[in-house]
Amino acid sequence: MDNFEFFSPTRFVFGRGAESRTGELVRKYGGTKVLLHFGGGSVKANGVYDKVVAALTAADVAYVPLGGVQPNPRSGLVREGIALCRREKVDFVLAVGGGSVIDSAKAIAFGTLYDGDFADFYHGKDVKRPTPVPRALPIGTVLTIAAAGSEGSGNSVITLEPGEFKRAATGDALRPMFSILNPEFTFTLPAYQTACGATDMFAHVVERYFTTTRDVWVSDELCEGIMRTIVTASRRVLAAPQDYEARANLMWAGTLAHNNVCGAGRAQDWASHGIEHELSALYGCAHGAGLAVVMPAWMAYVKDADIGRVAQFAAKVFAVPEGDPAAMAQEGIARYRAWLHEIGMPTTFAELGAKREDIPALVAKLGLNGNTLGTFMSLTDADVIKILESCC
Ligand code: NZQ
Ligand code: ZN
C-alpha cells in the first residue's frame, strides 16, 4: 500500500426527512444568505425545492435563487452566479440537484472569492499545488440523483465556453460542508438517469480498482463490495423505482464510490473519465452513458497490463468461476457489458449517437500533447484512437 492522506470533512445527513435540517446546517457553517442553485426544474416539479425553502425559512436564512444548470454544466451560468453572489453579498452556496448543479455551485463558491477568472483552475493555469483552490464560500448540497459523487468529492467539472472544453478542478475548498441525502428524492428519476448514475458510480470504483499498487486488500474488498452493491441495487430500483432500501443503498454507494475511501493508498487510473469527458462535451450525452461506451472498451484494451487483476474483477464482482485468467477476464468484461445493456445503457458509438469521423477531433481536444493518460496502462493518442475505434 502507498502512503496516503485521506481528508473527507463533509457531514452527511442521510435518510427520510433529512432536508428539514438544511437551514440549521447552513447556520452551523456560518451562512446567513444563500445562493439557492438548482437545475432545469425537476426539483420544482417533485417538491424538493419547496421543502428546502421551508427549511431555510424556518432557520431564518435568506436566499437568492439561481436555476437553469444544464447537465454537463457550463461556464456561462457560473459567471452569472459569481456576479449574483457578489452583488447580493451571499455568504453560502447551496446546491439542490445532481452532480451538474453541485459542480456549478462549487465553481461559483470559489469564483466569488477569486480575483481572476474562475476558469484558470479548470485550465490548470496558476494552480498552486497542493491546494489548487485556495478558498471558497462554504458549500452545502441537497442531493437528488445518486451518480457523480460530487456531494462528497473535492472536484468540480465544468464545460468551458467557447470551445466546449470539459475540464475538472480539484481542491479541498471544494468539499461540501454538508450533504443531505434523502433517498426518497431519487424516486422521481427517469430510468435512464438512474442507470446513468449507477454506471458512473461503478466507473468511479473501477478507476481506483484497476491499480498497479500491490497489497491493497482492504480497499480491494471495499471496491468489490461497492461494485456488487451497485449492480444489485440498480436492478432493484429499475424494477421498482420506489424501493426505498435499494435507493438508499445505491445513494450511499454513489458517495462511497467517489469520496476516495476506495482510492486511499493506491494508484488510480482515470483514463476512461478523461476520454468520456470529451464525448459528453461534444455530444451533450449523459456522462454515465458515455462511460458505458468507453469503460468496457478501455478495459478490453488494457487487460493484458495485468490480466490477474481483471480476472479478480470478473470473479469478485460478476461471479465468474475460477479458471484460466485470460478467459475469466474476457467473461468478466462480457458480463459488465451485459449488465450495462440490461439497465438500458449504450455500449457502442452508434447507440450513443457518436460518430467515427469525430475520433480525431475528440483525441485532439483531449490534448495529451505527447503525454500519456492513465496508470494501469499509459495510453498515448494512438491508444486512445484504438479504444474509440473499438467502440464503433
Ligand atoms: O436539471 P434537472 O431538471 O434537475 O434534471 C436533472 C438532469 O436532467 C435530472 N434529475 C436530477 N435529479 C432528479 C432529476 N430528475 C428527476 N428527479 C430527480 N430527483 O437528471 C439529469 C442529470 O442530472 P446531472 O446533475 O447532470 O447528473 P449527474 O449527477 O450524473 O451529474 C453529471 C455531471 O457530473 C460530472 C459529470 O461530468 C457531469 O457533468 N461529474 C462530476 C464529478 C465530481 N464533481 O466529482 C465526478 C464525475 O466523474 C463526473 O465527471
Ligand atoms: Zn464520473
Describe this structure as you would to a colleague:
The protein is α/β, with parallel strands linked by helices and 392 residues long. It has 2 domains: 11-185, Rossmann fold; 191-389, Dehydroquinate synthase-like, alpha domain (Up-down Bundle), CATH 1.20.1090. It is built from 16 helices and 8 strands. The chain has helices at 22-28, 42-45, 48-58, 75-88, 99-111, 120-123, 191-209, 217-239, 244-256, 271-283, 287-302, 307-318, 325-342, 349-352, 359-366, 381-390; strands at residues 11-14, 33-38, 62-66, 92-97, 139-143, 155-160, 165-170, 178-181. A 6-stranded parallel beta sheet has the order 1-8-5-4-2-3, with helices on both faces. A hairpin with a 4-residue loop joins strand 6 (155-160) and strand 7 (165-170). Helix 11 (287-302) packs across helix 16 and helix 12 (307-318) packs across helix 13. The longest helix has 23 residues, at 217-239. The radius of gyration is 20 Å and the shape is globular. It starts with 10 loop residues before the first strand and ends with a helix. Residues 126-130 have low confidence and may be disordered. Zinc ion (ZN) binds at residues 148, 200, 203-204, 273, 287.
